[in-house]
Amino acid sequence: MALPVVSVLSTQKKKKPSLVLTLSSAGLLIGVGSAAFWLLTQGKLFSRLPVGANIIPQDALFTVSLTTDASQWQKLRSFGTKETQAELDKYLVELRSRFLTNNGYDFQKDISPWVGNEVTIAILAPDMKKNAPTDGSGATKEQSMVMVLPIKNPQSAKTILAQPKMLKGGKLVERTYQGITIKQTEGQSKENFSAAVLDQRFLVITDNPKATERAIDAYKNKTTLATTGGFADNFPKIANYQPFAQFYVNVPIAAKIAAASPNRPLPAQVLAQLQNNQGLAGTITLESEGIRLKGVSWLNPNSQRTLAVENNAGNMQNRLPAETLMMLSGGNLKRLWADYVLTSHSNPVSPIPPEALRSGVKSLTNNELDLDRDLLSWMGGEFSVSVMPSIAKEGYKEDFRAAFVFMVQASDRAYAEASIKRLDDIIKNQYQFQIQQNTIAGKPAVNWIAPYGTLTATHGWLDNDVAFLIMGAPVTNKIVPKPNNTLASTFPFQKTVPSDPNPTNGQFFLDVERTVKNFPLPTLFPNQETVLEATRSIGITSAVSDSRSNRYDIFLELKKGDKPAPLPTPTITPTP
Known about the structure:
The chain is α+β, with helices and mostly antiparallel strands. It contains 16 helices and 20 strands. Residues 1-47 and 130-140 have low confidence and may be disordered.
């Protein structure tokens, strides 16, 4: 496997120039050099595509590029508690064993001397054709893995690759495909790998010889990720200098795999809607206080669907008090609901089916109110959903530990007031609540008093046609009048919720520490308690970038653990 090192040096004698020309040329070179340096560091390096984007086939289901910088991995290991640090270290050791130690390699000794700044791992989609071979259960073959390692030191790479480690129960064979030499293992008990060098700059390793051929075909035919619709245009929007990781999800391919699942297949209309989307990508960077993720999603270039460029959020956090535990805001609730219905109708994997919400409103109101017609139709402005802790006075009986607060700017206040009046009548007549007129800081409000005398909810209007509904703890005096110490002015919110993109069409804030300490949370994922214990707060800001793409910025503020000890030294069994 030849990996030649090419070095070209040339000199040429010239007539000695004048001093003025020399100084002028020097000034020009300094200016051009400075501009070139800026473009390289601020432009090219920030906008470059992930390693392997010109090699990995377009039908890759998922790709992730990871840094090879040991200091960044050490920084990642410094976050969290002892429990999360131990879990991460266990996972890293398992990965090291699978890809390196079990095959006789040590990263620092055998890989680090020649590999580039990052490596990319891609999962290729299985064959979705009707006559594709199966594993006997009706499911198509498993996905294949492709790993791309850039070669920064050809001579070191040549030395290592020319002397592969001895195989365990197998043999190494060599063949040629499309003029490229492929070395592959055969007869190993667990995994057979295939490797090839492309353009003398990239080492491509796969777990399937056919996957190697697919990568070579994509590279030669220019049918790679780099040429996938929207990939090269959107990835630079989230690029960053020396990222820890970058990832990409092929939405149409993922949708097809989900649709082919025998357990929970996607309905045809849902699959058709998901085909409008092309990609979801993200860049992860490690900062002093936590992890930042910049994301972008975009539509299929051939899709007729377009996005409404409305970024009208960003004011609700100025109406909420500093003690707010959680806030979710958006720019247009009516449009958000319409988009949700479009992709969630009859979708078995939707968290809350639209039909269930609609039928729920009709059931609660005895078919007197329609969710779309009577409520969401006038909610065309900014909205927020938040949670505030109860602040009970000494000696006061606490009926609720927290309050659910909903705010929305009405696009049709007259219609809104009529709908809310009908809701009051339903609560009074069907549930025997007392509807009590009240005044708070000079503004009219309505209390819902339960049959046993408990204040259950309050609704009213703020400035600029903003309606509010509070359920649970009585915290109306925290938002009326407008609080002096707002959520937006707090240090946790400012530190956690990203300021970009700006303007925004939505934000999210969760004070994890205070919430977990005071309230039990439903289990949403494995080891949730351990993960939340290591997290201080979460912030998200989103925006519609243009008519075909959305931008996201997420920050997780994490706790700092003890300085991590070195990972256990890998034990490599010498081969005979």
